[in-house]
Amino acid sequence: MTDEKEPTPQTEPSVWDYLASKIQFWKKEWKNNGEPKKEALEELETDQKEVFKEVLQEQKQLSKVPSFPWSTLAAIVLSLIAQLSLQPSPSRTFVPGFLFYGIALVCLIVAYIRKEWSLPRLRSEDDDTISTTFRWDYLLISIVLAIFAFLLFGSGEFGFLNTSLWVLSLVFVFLAFWRWQTENGHYLRKLFQLFKKKEWGIRISRYALIVLAVIAVILFFNFHRLDSVPPEMLSDQAEKLMDINNVLHGHFPIYFPRNTGREVIHFYLTAAYMAIFNLEVSFLNLKTVAVFANLATLLFIYLLGKEVGNKWVGLFAVMFAGMAYWPLVFTRLALRIPYYPLFVAPVMYFMVRGLRRQNINDILWTGFFLGLGLHGYTPFRIVPIFVVFGIIIFILHKNPRKRWMQSLFALSLIALVSLIVFIPLLRFWLANPELFSYRAFSRLTTIETEFPAPPLVIFFQNFWKASVMFFWDNGSIWAHSVPGHPALEVVSAAFYFLGIVSLIFRYVRKRDWRDLYLLVSIPMLLMPSILSLAFPSENPSLNRTAGAVVPVFVVVGVPFESAVRTFWMRLRGWFGKSILIILVILLVLWSAANNYDLVFNQYFTIYQQSSWNTTEIGRIAELFISTLGSPETTYVVGYPHWVDSRLVAINAGYPGMDFAIFTEQIPETADDPQSKLFFLNVNDGENMQLLLETYTNGILQQYDSNVENKDFMIFFVPPAQGVPAQ
Fold first, then answer.
1. What is the rounded CA–CA span in Å between residue 295 and residue 214?
2. Are 235 and 251 in a shared domain?
3. Is the pLDDT confidence value at 248 over 90?
4. What is the pTM of this model?
C-alpha cells in the first residue's frame, strides 16, 4: 500500500478497557494556583505507566488476534447494505437501514474489543505555548491604517486609496506578530539550489502514482461536460453575470445590493479571470471559476485530513470529496456557494495545526481566511462562532494554567486579523444594516412570514433533518440537488457512519480535543440551514450546508484509511494483498459510478426539465442579430413564469441588455422600420394576436425545442420597404 517505511500504527485499547483505566480522568485535584498536588502528580505518573504497560500488552496480543478481521468486514458490508436500503424508491422506509446500521455498530464494537479496528494515530502536540510577544510599532501602524481605511470605505466602493490602506494594514498586523522560522530559509535555499542544477531527476513512487490517479479522477469529475451540466442558467446567474459585467466596466462595490445583497469575492475573481484571458461574460466562464474554487477547497481538505490523521486519510478524503455529487452540483451551479467550503477548509486546517503546534503564524492565517470568508457567501457568518467553540474545546482539554491565557491570546489575534480583513463589509454593514442582514434574518426571523410552529420545535426538527440528510433526504431544491436523494452516495455514506461512530469511540477513550472539534464542526456548519426557522421547508439544503463538506469528507477518509490498513496488516502474501487492492478499487469505482449517475444523468435530467431553454432562444437571437436585425429590435415578450429575458440577452452575447417587452409596449415598436424578432410563450395567444394585428406582414412560427415541453413561438417582422437589413 505504501512505499515509505512508517511506524506501525499503535493498536488502541478497547473501549471498555480504556474506560476502566481512565475512570479518574476528570478527578485530578489541583491547587487554586493551578499547580498539581504531590498526590495528583504521583497518580498521573502511575496512570502514564499503566497506559504504557497496557499498550505494550496490546502489542504482544496482536499476534493472538485472528488473522482475518471478520468483525470489521461485517461492519463495512452491513453499513453498505444499510445505505443501499435507504436509496430512493417508491417503497422506501428507514426501518431496514436503521436495523442494518445498528448491527453494523455492534460489529464495529466487537472489532474494537477484538483489537481489529483502530483509527490512525493523532499527531503529537507541542508542549510549547504560543508566543505572545509582538511589535507594538507595527501593530500601532496597522490599527491607524485600518481606521483610515474604514473611514474611506464609506464611499461604498473599492478605490485605490482605501484599498491600499486596507491591504497595508493587513500587512503590518502580520509583520507585528509573524515569527520568522529557520526552516523557511532552509526550504528557500533548497529550492534555489534545485533551480541551479543543470539536470533534474524525478523519482516516481507508488504513492505519487496513486496521487496522480486521484488527481486525474478529480479533474475528470470537475471538468467533464462542464459546458452542458447544468445546461441552462437561472435568474440568479443572470444577476451574477450582470454584476460581473458592471465590474468589467469599472464599477467596484463593496457589497452587491441586487437580489437582497451578496458578498463580492465570486464577482471579482470571475471578472479578473475574464479580463486577464479576454473571455466573454458567459455561463461557462462563470462555472470555470467556481470549479477552480472547488479545487482549492480540495487541497485544504487533503491538508486537514493529513493533519488529523495521515497522508492516506487526506488522500482518501480528497478523493471522495473530489468526485462527490454534493459539492459538484453546487459548484457547477456557479453561484457563491463554493466559497463557503473554500474558506471553511483553511480556517479548520490552520486552526487545528496552529493549536497543535502552538504556532502563531498558523493562527494569523486562521484569522486571515476567517475574515476573507465573510466576503464570500452569507452562510459563512456562522464560522466565527464555530471558531470560538473550537478555542473553548481546546481550552477545556488542556491544563488551564498552561494553556488558557495563550489560547485566549490566539482567539484575540484571530478576531483582530479577521476584523481587519472584514473592514470593508463592516463599514457597509454599519451604513446599511437592513440590507446587509436581510438575507440571513429573513430565514431566521419573521421578517417575511410567521413561524409555522413554535421556533424551538422547528429548530429540533430541522436539526434532525439536516443530521440525517447524508443518509436519507438532502431536500427538494432541484437547482443544486437531486430532490429526495441522500447528500452522500452509498459508499461515502456508509463510511461516514463508520467514521462518526469511530471518532465518538476514540473521543470517549482518549478525550482528544481534535476528535470533538471534528465532530462538533459538522452540526455547527449545518446551522445556516437548520436555522431556517421561518421557512423550514427549505431545510435541509445543500447550499446552506455546503461548509460541512470539509469535515464530512475528512470523516469519510478516516475509517476508509482504517479499513484499508486493518486488512493490509492482516493479509499475508501477494495474493491476499492483491485481492484487497482489487476490492478497494471496486469500492472506489462503485462510488464514482454512483456520483457520475447522480450528477451527469439524474441531476442533468431534472435540471433540464425544470429550467427554461434560454440557450436555444439566445442562439436564435444571436443569429438574427448577426444577419438581419439588431439587439435593439430583438424582444422577449413577457409572460408569467416563463424565460428570464436577461438570460436570453446573455446567451446572445449581450450581457448588459434586457430583451424584455410587455403587451402595452408592442404597438410602439411599429414606428421602427427595421426588421424585428419576437419570442413568445406557446400559450400566449393574446400577444400573438396583438402582433398579427400590428404587423400584418409578420411571420408566426412555432420552434420545436430539443427539450420536451419547451417549445416557443417566433414572430419575425421583415424590414419596411427600402430599409436595408442591419
1. 12
2. yes
3. yes
4. 0.88
